Each structure stands twice: as structure tokens, then as C-alpha cells.
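hey so i finally got around to running the thing on that chain from the lab meeting. sorry it took forever, my laptop kept dying and i had to restart like 3 times. anyway pasting the input first so we r on the same page abt which one it is
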Amino acid sequence: MKQSSIHEFCALPATERMRVVQHFITDHLRSPNTTWGFAIFRTVYTPESDSNWDALLEKLNAYVRFEVRYDFEKGLDPEPNDVVAESFKNLIFDDRGKYDGMELDAGIIDRVCLVIDEEIFNALRDAPDPAEDLSGASIKVIDRVNDAEDSHPHYEGWVTAGVGGLWRVYQIMMTSIGLGTRCEKGNDGMLYFE
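ok and heres what got predicted. didnt touch it at all, straight out
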């Protein structure tokens, strides 16, 4: 079942219809070759980051795909999780002239984006394989939906999220709920996606 029509979705057993991946396929992967993912801004341009950039992106992709596949319940068909995982593809903004050393700014993109600066690059580079430890590293997530009424009082348009939780972040961003409503302040004073 690569793509689903509403009729195929309704014909599924109730236990399958309740799955997040089934809703995601029906709502967001309607046509062949449709992809989903994050806009990623690279803001670090060092010799090490230049030589390891592609491997770092593959590691980040592995975390997201592992999380999507890990999310399926035993006894249920894993194929929908595979469809969602394999359709994951990020949009990379990688231009040294524009983004080298860029500061976080919630106004740079339409909805949500990830930022890989030197700190995040080093943490992700050193993170274990997702099959060993899904908690891995953290990444900066910029979110333009900043509803001050519902957001954490210290929320300024970005949070830190574990790379092993980016599938959940994406699900939240597909709603009108801002990430600021789903964050907590850590002991270090940073805001973290819960």
C-alpha cells in the first residue's frame, strides 16, 4: 500500500485506522513521490563540517526513519511505517554566503525548520547510532507559530528537541499548535520539546 485513497483507508480494520501513520499517509502522502521532511539550515562551515556534512545528514535521517519504524505496535502491519519512513526527505539550505554563522530567527521560514550550527553539528556527529540509543543528540527547532497566550512564558520561537523525537515534532507542526505550548524549561535554562 504505497499511497492510500480515502476508500482504502476506510476499508482498513479499526486498529489500523487509528494508527498515526495511516492518518499521515491518507492526509499527507496522497500522490506518488510525495515526500515530507524539514527545512534544514546549515550555519556551520568548518573544514570538519564540510568533510562530514553528508554523513551527518544521513545520521539525522536515520534517527527520524528509525523513530517512525519504531513507532509501530506489535501485531500490526509495519508497511505503513515503512512507507512514511521511506518518503522522508529534508530540504537543505546550504549556502556559506547566506547562512554561515546565522543566528536563530523565527522569521526565516514559513512554519518550522531545523538549524545545524557548530554546537548541534558536534553533538550529532558524536551521537550514537539510533538503534543503540534513540535519545541521541538535540537539535534546534524554529517555529513561527508562537501563540503567546498558550506558549511557555520563556518561549521565543525556538526549542531544543531530541533528534529521536523529530517524527513527533513533525506531527505537532502539521497542526495549528505551536511548539511553544509543548515545551518545558530544563535545568540549564533552555526550553526543550516535551
